[in-house]
Amino acid sequence: MTAAQPLVSIITPSYNQAKFLEETMLSVLEQDYPNIEYIVIDGGSTDGSLEIIHKYADRLAYWQSRKDKGQTDAINQGFARARGEILAWLNSDDILYPGAVSAAVRQLQINPDIGMVYGNCDWINAEGKVIGKFPAAQTDLIKLRRGHVHIPQQTAFFWAALWREVGPLDESFYFAMDYDLWTRLAAQAPLLYVPELWAAFRLHEGAKSIAEDDRCWPEMLRVHYRDGGKKISPMTIKYTIRKLMQPLWIRLRRRRLSG
């Protein structure tokens, strides 16, 4: 393609997500942007996922299905194979909305000094019903380090050249590997929030954001202290409040699942 249509590499890590995988894959394959390299890294699923991947194999740049070390490792494996100038990953229970890739590329091209762009995101339940809105907002390195993330990962697109400077994802992180990456990207270049609806983040009982949410903030604190954060800071105060509110937070999220 031409420079006006840079190659966009999108990685989907997956493991036993047959219930949602086809919708996820189609949300990428049916984008109107003409220059997408789509890579699926499956961890050796046994639930019918392989049949879904085979169904669309001729439209994939690469796929594999074998045991890996988890989601973070799978994403890194995908990016190691990616040839695109722009990178993104979409988990196998989330979806991109039509036009999302074109919109992201356009914003990166008209704002060449930014490192990453991201947009708005719906929360949907297992049946695909919209049950809320992700609180996306403009953020930067200072705000990120204070715990004001506001980046829906499903909508994030970033330059591969910048990834090569700060990547790969830290495989010691189970939950906050994206937060860790955002801080490293933001330390090198501005991030841009675009108030357009680009994706949906699926909340369901098997999702990490429901079943294992309590692992997120301790990992974010690891980033905080690694980067010189103090024990008494906006980040640690926010973590303390969040920890106290954790049972209520999980109940509210589970209540949302029913719509």
Strand content: 15-25%
How many domain regions?
1
Number of helices: 10
What would CATH call the architecture?
A: Alpha-Beta Complex
Walkthrough of the structure:
The protein has 259 residues and is of the alpha/beta class. It has a single domain (8-257), classed as Alpha-Beta Complex (Spore Coat Polysaccharide Biosynthesis Protein SpsA, Chain A). The protein has ten helices and nine strands. It has helices at 18-29, 49-55, 71-81, 100-110, 141-145, 160-166, 177-186, 208-211, 216-226, 234-257; strands at residues 8-14, 36-42, 62-65, 86-89, 95-96, 116-124, 130-133, 157-159, 191-202. Strands 1, 2, 3, 4, 5, 6, 7, 8 and 9 form a nine-stranded mixed beta sheet that branches. Helix 1 (18-29) runs parallel beside helix 2 (49-55). The radius of gyration is 18 Å and the shape is globular. The relative contact order is 0.14. The model has no long low-confidence stretch (mean pLDDT 91).
Structure in a nutshell:
The protein has 259 residues and is an alpha/beta fold. The chain is built from ten helices and nine strands.
What's the helix and strand layout?
Elements: E1 8-14, H1 18-29, E2 36-42, H2 49-55, E3 62-65, H3 71-81, E4 86-89, E5 95-96, H4 100-110, E6 116-124, E7 130-133, H5 141-145, E8 157-159, H6 160-166, H7 177-186, E9 191-202, H8 208-211, H9 216-226, H10 234-257
Parallel strand pairs: 1-2, 1-4, 2-3, 6-9
Antiparallel strand pairs: 4-8, 5-9, 6-7, 6-8
For the structure shown, list the relevant keywords.
single chain, 259 residues, alpha/beta, Spore Coat Polysaccharide Biosynthesis Protein SpsA, Chain A, 10 helices, 39% helix
